[in-house]
Predict the structure.
Amino acid sequence: MPLSNRLVFFRPFAVALLAALALIPTRPAYAQTVPPQPAPGLSQPAPAQAAPAPSQQQAYTLAPDKLAKAIALSRIRNILAIVGGIWGIVFLWILLATRAWARVEAWAQRRTPRRWLQGALFFCAFFIFTTLASLPLDIYAEHASRSYGVSVQSWPSWFGDQGKALAIALVFGTLVLLLFNWIVRRWPRRYWFGLWLVTLPILVAVMFAEPVLIEPLFDKFQPLQQTDPGLVQQLEKVVARTGTDIPPSRMFLMKASVKTNGLNAYVSGIGATKRIVVWDTTAGRIPDDEVLFIFGHESGHYVLNHIPKMLAGTAFGLFFVYWGCAGLADWMVRRFGPAWGTNEVSSRTGFIVLLFVISIASFLLEPVSNGFSRYFEHQADIYGQEAIHGIVPNPQLTAVAAFDHLGEAWLEEPNPSPFIEFWLYNHPSVEHRANFAAHYNPWANGGHGEFFTH
Ligand SMILES: [Zn+2]
């Protein structure tokens, strides 16, 4: 998702389309930024095998001072993620119940006789209100991240980013909601099917445009070849082994160090805009071998077609989500519409009822999309470790060291609660990833991995 890392609490409301699309995290990053990311269940270390493993115990540990910070910061992140999700839904409801949306609709109608302009005013107001509603939580999250030394972004720069995100929502979000609202008006009975038909092309277009239109508004990118030619040479070895067609012109370095101490790398774009981005907090700060592993993980998302698969999964899931949400929204408008100042879903206020229902569905289905995401991330971890076999001396040690660096940089909690993992984490926990890596050695007895024949 565009901006999903930056706008975590924004999710259920703001980019309303995206309430729906938030169902699937479309950016397979190596590490997600805000809420950290574990696997369900299993917070025990993998059972020690007879095979020579580099570590027989917990592979991811933190020094006591860091551990205390990680636990405290994780608690704040988790609470904010859940409270933010619920608040987004409650906020929409309060404004419905107080007839505030109905008043905004009436105000827009007084301002102009043109329907589409009324809609534009109404949806701009929607994005401004929802942004303001989530701002206190966003500020608190950023404050916590700064005080624990993860974020190093200045407040003016941070507010600048929020302003840009709002501007994008005002332009593109308003256009999308105008289209959606028009579809509801045009086909009042079967609108959910129309919404479903247009959502996928919009998602694909957003993903295509994100690295070239959106990301450069927030961060600076340089060809990796320019900044780390030595590293590019090393990466070419992984490219050759994986057989991917990722030329150096598609490898970028993002200047993240002005904003965070966290490590990250991700794949973004599709087709002509597809690229691999490595943060400058990663390349140069941790050993090159570990960057190769991270790159191998990202290549795994490419090779294993994770983006098309997630799009297909989204399409499948949304078909039922839209159908169910439309039914529920129709019922709510009949039941509560008179009190909320609307009598049909196709009115502006009625459309908010639909967004309200979609927000609830999005919140409740988050564990489902996170479950799929964790599966893909685990596959990419395996792929990454296999991709550096024969290139680095010991893939197990390299992967474990990379996870240790990752966990320490983000202050990842070593033992998150299973419920939090299940609900919020879109990557397996660092603990789980490191433990798996420590024991993954398919070559031990002349065997080979899952994705490579040697
Ligand atoms: Zn990943």
